[in-house]
Amino acid sequence: MQQSENQPAGIEIALWHYSKNERDWNRWMQSLSADERERAATYRFERDRASFVAGRYLLRRLLSVHSGELPGKILLSPDKHGKPRLEGRDTPQFSLANADGLVVVAVASGCDCVGIDCERADAEIEEAAWESYCSVNERHWLAQLPEHERARGAIALWTLKESHLKALGVGLREDPRNIAFSWKDGIPFMAGGDRDRRWHHRMVEGGSQHIVALTACSEAGLPGISTRIFQDDSMPSE
Asked: Does the structural domain 10-229 have CATH classification 1.20.210.10?
């Protein structure tokens, strides 16, 4: 897919630290499709069900602004990899992630693809697990960090790789060790002399409790990025 010459590249990121009560839950559910409501019912744990519903609600709210459709009227369909997209449209590109109380959505205009991921900053990743998703150089970089920074560094690498694989639409069907990162002035970039310069990676401020990573593919360089905290203002869904 080629980006439109008339559409400037830009990415809107919304972060939502949601909390659920019965009235909110009913309103969120009204914005979901029948398939999404059925899927929500399959989750065994309430926190996982709430995370899924909140994520789809936020996604529909943002897509409503871009499409002009009411949230509950938006039609989503899976692509060949199972990644949701707007039915009958290639744009805008979007990506969704959630992690224990936080939902993050990125909506991109004028980009070939976008991916976002988030994880709890206190998630436990044992050093023995680094080998399963880190390259040799990445493991060396982690080992050189001060001990109190290694856990956060390991999570940052994981979210970067997840965001990149989500942008590609392949998820963990691709070995995350095939995508290696280095850092320059605090900014991550894919390592290797033959790296594709259409790809752009950034860490997004997600608060002290979460780590958020963004990946975008754009021919025109790094897209403009706007980040905001979502405030649910009870917009009608029908």
From this structure: no
